[in-house]
Design goal:
The protein is 36% helix and 14% strand. 37% of the residues are buried. A six-stranded mixed β-sheet has the order 8-9-10-15-13-14. The longest helix is centred in the N-terminal third of the chain and has 23 residues. By secondary structure, it is α/β, with parallel strands linked by helices. The protein folds into two domains: 227 residues, Enterococcus faecalis V583 fold (Alpha-Beta Complex); 272 residues, Inosine-uridine Nucleoside N-ribohydrolase, Chain A, CATH 3.90.245. The radius of gyration is 26 Å and the shape is elongated.
């Protein structure tokens, strides 16, 4: 560069955009998006995946080898596949994905999966080496942010079309170069209007802080220029919280009742990875905590997203942490995909209430939590961390009877009274003769009971996976009880509980709030 043999210029000056470092060279394969309305094209490099990659400024043999693979395998295979099918309609993919929770800057999971769904059959049909086809399909399946670069090029093509407007003040580009923040305005030609750029206030790897960071850079704000990204978070609330039944307001009210404002609460995702959200108000009520007289929240939630709070808790912990999941697994999978190294370093095990072996409470063989987001559950179960599964097989044994509820009602403390109120509502659903229950099953408390006293439970160590494509079984947890598949053990599956000991523990804990 000092000799002038290598010249640098903004990607925007050649109808292109580049995320983060934005490095684009003549040897890199590019995504091409055509704006058929305005007759222009825009370009972007392909997403390089996670880890040590060029867009984050990483350099070294592994980075170079990965770039060569993208040049020699990924680019040619995708190019050939696109030549063997009709052009991909980006608008259709965007429409689908935003309804599934993507906002196209920090979350592109649904769009990336939709892209894979469109491309995989064509890739599989190509007359090329099988290992190349498999490698490309696996890369697309593993790269949740792959569509991000497609969206950037799409937004660039649309906003360059808007540059043809000679009168008006439409902002057609926003970008950062590590020194300045710049915008372009329709009708003002190629002129940039600039100001100082900020240093991001965000989540850093262990041992690093804002002092180690460089000022913000990259062309990714083209998504916000187009109107998605940060401006679509309300329309795509997957980056705010997961509803299911109730929301984080319930957690604030419950912790206020327990007088535990020291426990932080953050907003998580609201919709599943792929399928539309389904809820169960008939089970827990419209609020998720119907029947309980809970106080109004006495403190505020954290301002950061749930996955950032999870990361902060793990970073600050001096010992390994157990992650307990009692709802669909979207937040768990978002964290595992965002911070995989931190998860492997600091998470001791994941204990989850969900699934069943041969039972179902929402479909004949499918439990509700897994049914809501089977794709997320499948990723969590195959991530490689130790798992403890608390299925319907054991929670249906952990029933509390009406006389036992009446006994708890005699406890003179607000926590026990709230518990009774919740159960008085919850047990109505389970009075249906089809369940053949003598009481109401205490599903979620079994996770904590196992952590407090695992001797109350019996289980087996087996492989568990999740069916995600079956017409009748999507969301079924496939439990390899007899080790027929040869897959490695990944889960401790609980199958029996000492009901009397379990109920005694519940009573003891509720009495402790007196």
């Amino acid at each position: 560069m000092e000799s002038g043999e290598v010249q640098l210029m903004p990607c925007h000056h050649v109808n292109a955009v580049g995320p983060m470092g934005g490095i684009t060279s003549a040897h890199m394969p590019l995504l091409v998006v055509e704006n058929q309305t305005d007759g222009n094209r825009a370009y972007c490099t392909m997403n390089k995946g996670i880890g040590a990659v060029l867009r984050f400024g990483a350099n070294g043999p592994e980075v170079i080898e990965h770039l060569k693979w993208m040049r020699d395998v990924l680019g040619p295979v995708l190019s050939l596949a696109l030549q063997n099918r009709e052009p991909l309609n980006v608008n259709v993919l965007v429409t689908k994905a935003i309804a599934m929770g993507d906002e196209f800057h920090q979350r592109n999971i649904a769009a990336s999966l939709a892209f894979l769904k469109e491309m995989a059959p064509t890739i599989e049909g190509l007359d090329i080496e099988e290992d190349k086809k498999q490698a490309v399909i696996q890369f697309l399946a593993d790269t949740d942010q792959f569509f991000f670069n497609v969206m950037m090029a799409s937004a660039k093509s649309a906003m360059d079309g808007a540059r043809q407007i000679q009168e008006g003040t439409i902002v057609t580009a926003m970008c950062r170069n590590g020194h300045e923040f710049g915008i372009r305005i329709a009708g003002m030609g190629d002129e940039w209007f600039t100001g100082p750029v900020n240093t991001p206030k965000g989540l850093y790897f262990s041992g690093f802080s804002e002092e180690d960071a460089s000022p913000d850079m990259g062309d990714s704000a083209i998504t916000e220029t187009f109107g998605v990204g940060g401006f679509a978070m309300i329309a795509a609330p997957a980056v705010t919280r997961f509803v299911g039944t109730g929301g984080f307001d319930d957690a604030l009210r419950m912790l206020t009742l327990l007088k535990r404002p020291d426990i932080p609460v953050a907003a998580g995702a609201q919709v599943p990875l792929v399928k539309p959200l389904e809820t169960a108000p008939e089970v827990h009520g419209e609020t998720g905590l119907d029947g309980a007289d809970l106080p109004e929240p006495g403190f505020l939630p954290q301002s950061l997203p749930a996955i950032e709070l999870m990361a902060r808790v793990l970073q600050e912990s001096t010992e390994k942490v157990t992650l307990v999941v009692t709802r669909p697994m979207i937040n768990a999978v978002l964290f595992l995909r965002t911070c995989p190294d931190l998860a492997r370093e600091k998470i001791d095990q994941i204990v989850f209430m969900g699934g069943a072996m041969g039972l179902g409470n929402w479909q004949p063989s499918v439990e509700f939590n897994i049914f809501v987001d089977p794709e997320a559950a499948k990723i969590v179960l195959n991530f490689g961390l130790p798992l403890v599964m608390v299925p319907l097989n054991v929670t249906h044994q952990a029933q509390i009877t009406k006389p036992e509820i009446d006994e708890i009602a005699q406890l003179d403390n607000p926590v026990a009274q709230a518990f009774v109120g919740l159960l008085n509502f919850f047990e109505r659903y389970h009075e249906d003769p089809k369940w053949d229950f003598v009481g109401a099953p205490l599903h979620d408390p079994c996770t904590i009971a196992w952590l407090i006293n695992p001797a109350l439970f019996d289980g087996v160590d087996i492989n568990v996976d999740v069916e995600t494509t079956g017409e009748l079984t999507r969301g079924e947890t496939v439990c390899d009880y007899y080790h027929l598949t040869g897959k490695p053990v990944n889960t401790k599956l609980l199958l029996k509980v000492d009901r009397a000991g379990f109920i005694s523990l519940v009573k003891e804990l509720l009495a402790s709030f007196g």
